[in-house]
């Protein structure tokens, strides 16, 4: 089966989204299907890769997003979809690509929208006085759900905004983590000596540096720990529009800004070398970076408001959204014997392998390994 996947708001350094697209495409190909990925970029490209065919269409940068691009040439994209004649489409954007659900329905092609973000959560960040916006978000989510045959959510937290509007076409499937790449054995004494003194606690924050990820909470947490006399230092991995503001906020604190780390082996080493990871995003629908930290044997402090408590289980701590609570959580994790906390983190991550994720996504498409194409069919109902 030819599974055409579409995504906007991606960049070469967009982290979790690119990881998920790559791993799912690789899994679809290994299962005997023909994945085709369409993404925006600076110029047109058409490549055969390990994750299948990847077509890049020219798309402008969205101002203020730190490099995110979108495909705006709807006519060109529609023509390309017609040429590709997909057996399934999988859409990773509920806003600018919502129209592709109608395109697919008009041609009898089963469609699935993967909910990688939370519109209700993003609106909630504006505060309780924005209740009309929450109502509009619910209305929009209802329209989105009716535009596609299936809406796939990776956590129950992500599914909640669709359940609230009575969507009857929800399915659940988790994302995964590369358990061979990320592991406790990647811990590096050389990296440790580069980033921290022998008696210091090494914290790591790994995410896109954008407002919805709330990276300033990691800086505030470090400041609070230092105020308490905890000899902690922080490594920040990632890039984004909040970088300059964070550098200013970090003035006088022992923080290393490492930027986007494209070398996956180096990233695995950094995560395994840290003592605790901090993932403070309040609207995370899954949190791949936090899961990669767990796989590396590093426990994680997460925002209680997000989906991450579902992912980390008892291998980390869910904290209220202020620096004192995060500092308490970090100290609580450090009080656990190191061997126990690292083993618990790895054990939790082992529940989320990519093969399980691929199987779940294919099941949502009503496909299986080595399926023989027999034309379009309807997709499954709710889980």
UniProtKB/TrEMBL annotation:
What is the name listed in the Swiss-Prot or TrEMBL entry for this protein? Glycosyltransferase
InterPro entries per the UniProt record, alphabetical: Glyco_trans_4-like_N (IPR028098), Glycosyltransferase_grp1 (IPR050194)
The Glycosyltransferase subfamily 4-like N-terminal domain covers 15-169
One short Pfam family name for this protein? Glyco_trans_1_4
Q: Which UniProt keywords apply?
A: Glycosyltransferase, Transferase
Upper lineage: Bacteria, Bacillati, Actinomycetota, Actinomycetes, Streptosporangiales
